[in-house]
Amino acid sequence: MIERIAIIGMGTMGPGMAARLARGGLQVSAYDVAPAAIERAQAMQGMAEGVLDSLGIAATGAGSVRFTDDIAVAVSGADLVIENVPEKIEIKAEVYRQIDGLVSAETIVASDTSGIPITQLQAHISNPARFVGMHWSNPPHIIPMIEVIAGEQTAPETVHTIRDFIRSLGLLPVVVKKDVPGFVENRVLYALLREVVDLVERGVIEPEDVDTCVSWGIGYKLAVVGPMALLDMAGLDIYNSVSTFLNADLADRKDVAPMVGQKIAAGTLGLKSGEGIYSYTPERITELQRERARKLVAIRRILEGTD
Ligand SMILES: NC(=O)C1=CN([C@@H]2O[C@H](COP(=O)(O)OP(=O)(O)OC[C@H]3O[C@@H](n4cnc5c(N)ncnc54)[C@H](O)[C@@H]3O)[C@@H](O)[C@H]2O)C=CC1
Ligand SMILES: Cc1ncc(C(=O)O)c(C(=O)O)c1O
Q1: Does the N-terminal or the C-terminal CB of the chain have fewer CB atoms within 10 Å?
Q2: What's the pLDDT score for residue 307?
Q3: How far is the CA of 1 from the centre of ligand 1 (A)?
């Protein structure tokens, strides 16, 4: 039974995850190596709780989030540790080395990796049978789908425990059957992102217009009709006809588009640096976060039939 959870890494994903798990009645310990990240995560709890209220997610039991700057305190007695540090194998491996001697043989260690194969990650931990991929989607307190991925050495019961645990929280587990890079969600997303970056780079369309095209075209529709169901809605004959001339013309570069490297070299990373594809003032960032949360909540409530 999972009751005590440690989250290692309180950056973009950790704070919302902590709030959502606490709302499910869990005792959450939240740790980060950077004191500023802990402070920011503490400050964000109120906002995340407000969003959970507006989603109509009632508290099940007396869950809590306790912040600590000591990893040993964080993982002590944990039934589940969720590693949530940057997407670099060496950083994740160092965390596994640190927690290895601190957790029990029963503790499940899960990684929120966006797509590093679980088989590669579990090579760095002494109990790989209890190691599993648990890939949340951003913002994690709002998006209900979580991918569950086994590596070659993950025990089937570890996958079942995490899948059932996610379900018990009222969330939607999707078990990915093969440990492919990017799993499923990010393979689909990155196929789309490669194409839109290529279209903008080639001057086919402006960034604002591609956002309108995707959000109000396929994006809006896909929230209601999944891509496999969409094939039936359009007709497989249409898909076949379009694919015969279009597939050969789609972006297929193996490296990352130069536009992205140029922006990173200029220090323009997106919201976190105030400029990326678009420019943002600090006020606009706060406004956007509120507006996006409000709209995602409204759409989710409609899709769930609660509004
Ligand atoms: N940002 C996103 O949209 C999503 C990210 N992910 C994945 O989740 C993981 C975390 O991503 P983000 O939250 O975006 O990263 P982030 O860079 O925003 O935050 C990572 C946090 O880890 C902390 N950290 C670094 N080394 C540490 C260590 N040794 N011990 C403890 N804390 C440490 C950093 O101080 C930072 O606060 C990555 O694997 C990422 O690929 C998964 C889903 C969505
Ligand atoms: C750009 C990007 N990359 C990775 C992820 C992820 O799920 O790991 C996301 C996300 O939205 O969650 C993302 O937007």
Answers
A1: N
A2: 75
A3: 26
Same domain, 189 and 156: no
- Predicted local distance difference test score (pLDDT) of residue 172: 97
User: What does pTM read for this prediction?
Assistant: 0.95
The CA distance from 250 to 237, in Å, is 19
Ligand 1 binding pocket includes 147 (Cβ within 6 Å): no
75 lines ligand 1 (CB under 6 A): no
| Positions in the chain short of pLDDT 70 | none
* Residue to probe by mutation, ligand 1, list 8, 70, 81, 84, most atoms within 8 Å of CB: 84
Q: Could you count the other beta carbons within 10 Å of the beta carbon of residue 123?
A: 16
CATH number for the domain that contains residue 8: 3.40.50.720
| Ligand 1 in reach of 111 Cβ (< 6 A) | no
Same-domain pairing of 32 and 110: yes
Do 26 and 168 lie in one domain? The reply is yes
What element of type H or E holds 215? Answer: none
Please tell me the number of the ligand nearest to residue 136's CA: 1
Pairing of strands 80-83, 4-8: parallel
Residues 83, 157: one domain? yes
Nearest C-alpha neighbor of 252 from the set 185, 191, 184, 181: 191
Does residue 137 sit in the same domain as residue 193? no
pLDDT for position 305: 87
Q: 83 CA to middle of ligand 1, Å?
A: 8
Domain that includes residue 292, residue range = 185-304
Is there a single domain that holds both residue 169 and residue 78? yes
Confidence at residue 306, expressed as pLDDT on a 0 to 100 scale: 82
**Ligand 2 mean position to 190 CA, how many Å?**
9
Q: Which of 29, 22, 89, 94 is nearest to 60 (CA)?
A: 22
Tell whether 194 and 166 lie within a shared domain. Answer: no
Can you say which residues are annotated as belonging to the binding site for NAD(+)?
Answer: 9-14, 32, 87, 92, 114, 138, 272
